[in-house]
Design a protein that fits this description.
4 helices
Length: about 130
């Protein structure tokens, strides 16, 4: 009995899966995710989950990377315009705003449904992994 063939690595690296959606994940500029030594950096588990969900939606053709990038840059501009002094900038909060905007535009998850789901999750007991 022979051993199974070795698994081949994926054709695209995990650092640039947005390329499958039509563009490279930016390294610099307002839409570029935080990096350290060239690697993506996530401060909290929800940030990496949000990132992965977004890229999965792009790969499934729900929207394209350029569409998301445009929405992300707009979300960053809104924050820059409306941010109060002393409020810390959080990149993945802008990413979340961009994704929520696109979900509403595509009717995949209209704003009212998204709000209802957020309230349900927020009502879960403290310490529960959302």
């Amino acid at each position: 009995m022979s051993a199974p063939p070795p698994r081949r690595p994926p054709e695209k690296s995990a650092a640039t899966p947005a390329a499958r959606g039509g563009a490279e994940l930016p390294v610099v500029g307002p839409a570029a995710p935080p990096r350290a030594n060239g690697e993506l950096v996530f401060a909290e588990p929800w940030e990496s989950r949000l990132f992965g969900i977004t890229l999965a939606l792009i790969e499934d053709g729900v929207f394209t990377w350029p569409e998301f990038q445009e929405e992300l840059i707009a979300a960053i501009r809104v924050w820059e315009t409306l941010a109060e002094p002393g409020v810390e900038y959080r990149y993945y909060e802008r990413w979340q705003a961009a994704l929520e905007g696109l979900l509403g535009h595509t009717d995949l998850c209209p704003e009212a449904e998204l709000d209802a789901r957020a309230r349900t999750l927020a009502a879960r007991p403290h310490g529960h992994d959302h």
